[in-house]
Amino acid sequence: MNKIVRLPSLAAIRVFEAAARHENFTEAAAELGMTQASVSYQIKVLEERIGAPLFLRQARKVTLTAIGRQLSTPTIEAFDRLRATYGADQDALNRTLAISALPTFAANWLAPRIGRFQMAHPDLAVRVESDPKLIDFAQDEIDVAIRYGKGDWPGVVAHALFPSEFTPITSRELLDAEGPIQSPADLLNLQIIDPTDPFWKLWLAEAGVATDGLSDRVGSHLGAQTVEVRAVLSGQGIAMLTPRFFRYELETGRLVQPFDRVSTDGGHYWLIYPTARRNMPKIRAFRQWILAEAEADNALVASG
């Protein structure tokens, strides 16, 4: 059975490696973010453990002793290997921002804007995953996420971007075929793509329209708005959608919002990330950028 050799303090070895490499306690202290007195103390601890001096202290400099030089070579080589092992992967991680976003948000809000972020941060690569599932930041390789809700998730910092807003939206082709819509009640005469969507009941109730039997109607549950809008554009019916996600289609007339009424359930879209990572440079850069983009978009919505 091999005898286990007890190592000296790893903190002391780390200080010795830097001091030996620089042959200067002041420079070692600056590299490690320590005081010169702390460096001297750790070297003294190691010398007591070794039982021999590692440096010769002179008036304005220190030099390695024979045993210090003997120990410094394998120690520096070992730390070089550690730096090579961890440094490359860490550098790649620091230069890649992994974003998990809800599919419609990713496709219709983030994608048209993310180029501006990359232009402002050309050394930072961006990876976007369109995924509606909850994120476990401890398990998933994700830096930040965009989620919908109340912002009360434990263990994360949450920044509100904009509220959930919804209104019935259809296509020009469907209106031309079915005739004009005079009142909100007329919407019930159209094919509703997902009548089980709870936003339908909320919007119609606010418009003073009874919703008895609405959820019993036959329809399609397509999940994300970005999928529902494809059905709408194909003339298959009317859907409850978020206007800001489809601003271009509304402005060009491909989509039609029959009524000005826009409802909300009190939820918001949020930028979230683990509390412990809030000061990471790449997360700080993205946070500043997306909050500014959301503020500008909110001002555009408010202006009509």
TrEMBL record:
Record-linked InterPro entries: LysR-type_TF_proteobact-type, LysR_HTH_N, LysR_subst-bd, WH-like_DNA-bd_sf, WH_DNA-bd_sf
GO molecular-function terms, A-Z: DNA-binding transcription factor activity; sequence-specific DNA binding
Keywords per UniProt: DNA-binding, Transcription, Transcription regulation
Residue ranges annotated for the HTH lysR-type domain, each copy included: 8-65
Protein name: Transcriptional regulator GcvA
Family stated for the protein in its record: Belongs to the LysR transcriptional regulatory family.
GO BP, sorted A to Z: DNA-templated transcription
UniProt KW DNA-binding keyword: yes
PROSITE patterns: HTH_LYSR (PS50931)
